Every structure is written in C-alpha cells, then in structure tokens.
Amino acid sequence: MDLIIFGYFATFFSAVSFLPQAIKTIKTRDVSGLSLLTYICLFLASLSWFTYGVVLNDIPLMATNFLTTFFQSIILFLIISERNKADN
Amino acid sequence: MDLIIFGYFATFFSAVSFLPQAIKTIKTRDVSGLSLLTYICLFLASLSWFTYGVVLNDIPLMATNFLTTFFQSIILFLIISERNKADN
Question: Which one of A16, A34, A86, B60 counts the least CB within 10 Å of its CB?
Fold first, then answer.
C-alpha cells in the first residue's frame, strides 16, 4: 500500500472542509457559536500556507490553500458583519 | 529575507487556531452555528496529516496535527453531544 495516500486524503479533506461551514453560515447567519479568534488564525494560516506554496512553486499547496482562504474569508466576513449588526 | 518564514507562520497559526474555538465551545456549549460536516472533514484531515507525518517521520507535521486533532475532537464531541441533548 502506497502510504502517500494519507497525504492525498489530508489534502482533499483540508480543501473541502470549510465549504459546509461557509454554506451554513451564509444561510443561517448564526455566528454566535463561532470563535472570531479561531477564524483570524485560520485565515492567517491559510494565507501563509498559500504564500509558502507560491515560494516553493507547489501547485497542490497553492490550490488547497486558495480554496480554504476563500471559504474562511467568507466566514470571517460574516462573523464580523453579523456581530456589528448585533451591536447596532 | 528567508521566505521559509511563511512556513513557520503557517505552522504556528495552524497549530493554535482551534484552541479558542474549543475553549469557547466548552464554555458556552453553543454549537448551533457550527457545521458538523466541517468538523468531520477537519478531523479526518488532521488525522490524515498526522498519519502522513508518521509515515514521513516528520516531527513538525506530527506535532501540529496532534494538536489540531486533539482540539477538533473536543469540538466534534461537543457538537454531537449537545445536539443529542437537544433532540431528547
């Protein structure tokens, strides 16, 4: 068994993981249970991984983190905008 | 400037990102806005990255994903247990 399959599994699940959360948050606007600090860290992590992928010219690293950065930026935007609404 | 610094940033933010979410969810038990499917994918991703780290004998990959798997398993457990409570 080629053990590199774990790398493919990991890449696949990482790439798609934030799509259901983004869809759910767009639909429900329910951000009360979401940690803003977690999404700031995740966004910075994905952006750093993406930049690291550009530095290494590593296409899978760039592609995966382009997707996660995109989904996380939607969730982050909704957390901030819904909390601002709630404050006004 | 040594561009590998983006890799260190990425590793650091990835490792700590789920700690605030775990603390928040333990304290508030507010899981209504959290996507179960996202946390299943994240858990499978971290577990696969950890296993890939073991295969490659890559200590940073193992350490980072040991932490994320641990934090995510707490959040996943709380999502499932709080929803089961709500159903009963």
Answer: A86
- Sequence-separated contacts (24+) of B45-49 with Cβ below 8 Å: B45/A9, B45/A10, B45/A13, B45/A14, B45/A17, B46/A10, B46/B72, B48/A6, B48/A7, B48/A9, B48/A10, B48/A13, B49/A6, B49/A10, B49/A14
CA closest to B28 among chain A residues? A33
Yes or no: say if B35 and B85 are a contact pair by the CB < 8 Å rule.
Answer: no
Residue A5 placed within a domain? no
Task: Look at residue B33 and tell me if it is in a domain.
Answer: yes
| A40-75 tens-digit pLDDT | 999 999 999 999 999 999 998 899 999 999 999 999
**CB distance A63 to A12 below 8 Å:** no
- Residues of chain A contacting B, Cβ within 8 Å: 3-4, 6-7, 9-10, 13-14, 16-21, 23-25, 28, 30-35, 37-38, 41-42, 44-46, 48-49, 51-52, 55
Position B6 pLDDT exceeds 80: yes
* Residue A66 falls inside a structural domain: yes
Q: How many domains does chain B have?
A: 1
Judge whether A71 lies within some domain.
yes
CATH number, domain of A77, equals 1.20.1280.290
